[in-house]
Amino acid sequence: MLYGPAEDSDDEFAGRLAEWMTEGPIAGVYWLPALDDEGDVTAYELNEWQGALQRRVKGLYATMRTLWETSPFLVVATRLGGFHGYDAGGATSVLGGAVTGFAKSYKKERPDALVKAVDLPASRKTAAIADLLIEETLRDPGCVEIGRAADGLRYGVAFVERAFTPLGPDGSPHGEGGMTLGKDSVFVITGAAGSIVSAITADLAKASGGTFHLLDLTPSPDPDDADINTFRDDKAALKARIATRLKEQGKKATPVLIDREIARIERLEAALTAIEAVTDAGGKAFYYPVDLTDAGNVAEVMEQVRERSGSIDVLLHAAGLEISRNLPEKEPREFNLVFDVKTTGWFNVWRSAKDMEVGAVVVFSSVAGRFGNQGQTDYSSANDLLCKVVSNFRRTRPQTRGIATDWTAWGGIGMATRGSIPKIMEMAGVQMLPPEAGVAWVRRELESSAYSGEVIVAGVLGAMAAEYHESGGLDRSAVGAGTGPMVGEVSSSVHTGVTSKTTLTPAEQGFLTDHRIDGTPVLPGVMGMESFAEVASLIAPQGYRVAAVEDVSFAAPVKFFRDEPRELTISAVITPAPDGDDLIAHCALTASRELPGQSAPVTTTHFTGTVVLTTSEPEAQSVEGGTEAPEQTVGSDVVYTFYFHGPAYQVVSEAWKDNGGSVARFNTGVPDNHVPADAPLITAPRLVELSFQTAGLWEAGTQGRLALPMRVASTRVLKDPASVEGDLFARATPTADGFDVVVTDAAGDVVVVLDGYATVPLPGDLSEDVASALGATFA
């Protein structure tokens, strides 16, 4: 067992390590320097920044490189807050991100070794840490990143898909809270001579026509440079020219030397392209050749930025380089170069920019930073540190948005297009990012919302995101028993949470055979919401219950064509709630179909939503309002001449108008909803269906139209329906954008609450006799 004490100098620690190795092989390393209180890193001097990172991550690199042959396990501990910086509060001791990034890549290089990055809250008492780290050593080989939060729960790091705000009618990406980029916008961009960064700069310039301060190690490009112009027009001719030039210099024109010169010219051309794009868009471009690791040089450049612009709207830190070599071959000079350009470069730029008004910071990370990658311990360490730096903005600088983009390998542009890399990516199952998808990403991220956080920009990740254990790190015996009708075969993943694959057969289930549109069974939206609750309950910690299903979107109906069985996939990823002690399960229901002309099944996301898990009990509610039916009602004999529901979903016995809304009595004679009939339900789906239909009757009666569910803001069960004696009533109240509905007993005690129910109209009109009957009741 090895500790890395912060008080040792590098030489002292190297000597201590050599001494320990003489006593026998070292089985494992517990690396603890990232537990030290780092204070306010924004107040550091450069030597303090470098010293802190030397102790935390460069010492770790030297240690694990020295011990490589024995393949020791590695457990690192950090104080990022207990959630690795992915909670609403943001990361605390951000330098720990570099340690976590290293650990993830070490795991890629040593897949058979146990590797853990255990994150703790700042308040965790030292006496308990050793026991906790030993516990992590002895369990769960499938998960590297573990958060041990102050609430006593144990978290992993997964990801959820979130759609951009839809484009406007004019193609604009602007959404609520997003930035407006225009002539007055000021951009500072590092790494500006990279081909990818140049293309992104051109996109931002075209959208804004603003002022761009472009920083790169590459010298200022000369528009009249013959090599640049030949690079643009005829790369083969440029190669021939370079070969001739090398021979004239008495050098051998090897492919390595020619490619090295081409790369130099390519960066000059990319820098010139960025400058031209800005000026062509009517903007102002200022180019600064600068070594980002030179603090004095950077300070001079940033002072010019301050004098010329005064403030920064977008600071895009894209500088960096990557050299892939496993630890034994990765020399300290190389590790320091790759690591320092990104991290010390950031420190030097931010040290000069932090006192200015900065609207948003975007840092370029990589899937190597998110998942780790073989040969990239330095690159992964640097990237994950930057991710934690911008996460910390939510805690210490909320006025500045912080966004980290974890880019996958780009196709058609950049380093990953050269040599054998595309083939390697294909063999690893990694889908490369098309430029037409990636170039506009930064702009859309800035304009579409106020989001701050880390974004994985990737398609299929293949081996990059492969599980380390078939269980996904989850103890299957500890998963709650799935006894509801919507839970089938359960699996789990470190990255995507828990998944249930359920095969449903219309002939067996009342909720399908009696829920048909134009003769085709369609999964009721209420059973989709039930599936979310059931799957979320599988991994709910002890003492938690489903409090609500929220933010539900019914994007596409789930149809069972030709009455054939169909497999549904329900997934749930649980995160801590932004405030309070609740947990939020982010859920999706998908299904696949083989379509003519398609080489692979087409997967559709039909429903999405969240489930709130809580330890608190529901608060009782009651409402006023009569439940005695007036003389004018509409009965089920009329309702189900135009509603498509069969017996199991003919939940309305009669309905009427009351106090500016509609009321419906529940039909207690409906047959079983599902088989087995005693399989428990969580969300009272047929009472929610009663709510849907009651709201729908008001729409039909007052607007002469039928509609299907589109979204639900929230549904909650406050009282066990089985405990109610007597009739149940749904009371729908129209709102500005939909309906709020409560289901009560005869005394007015609330059983189910449905808020923010909205619909999408169906084409066609009601028949004249039905419209007349409904109009007489609800008009």
Automatic annotation (TrEMBL):
Q: Could you tell me the superkingdom of the organism this chain comes from?
A: Bacteria
- Which GO BP terms, alphabetically? fatty acid biosynthetic process
SMART domains according to UniProt = PKS_DH, PKS_KR
Q: Which Gene3D superfamilies match?
A: NAD(P)-binding Rossmann-like Domain, Polyketide synthase dehydratase
What GO molecular function terms would the record report?
Answer: fatty acid synthase activity
Keywords carried by this UniProt record: Phosphopantetheine, Phosphoprotein
The UniProt annotation puts the region (N-terminal hotdog fold) at: 484-618
C-terminal hotdog fold, as annotated region = 631-768
The UniProt record lists the PKS/mFAS DH domain at 484-768
Pfam families the UniProt entry points to: KR, PKS_DH_N, PS-DH
Q: Which CDD domains match?
A: KR_2_SDR_x
* Matches recorded under PROSITE patterns: PKS_MFAS_DH
Q: What is this protein called?
A: Beta-ketoacyl synthase
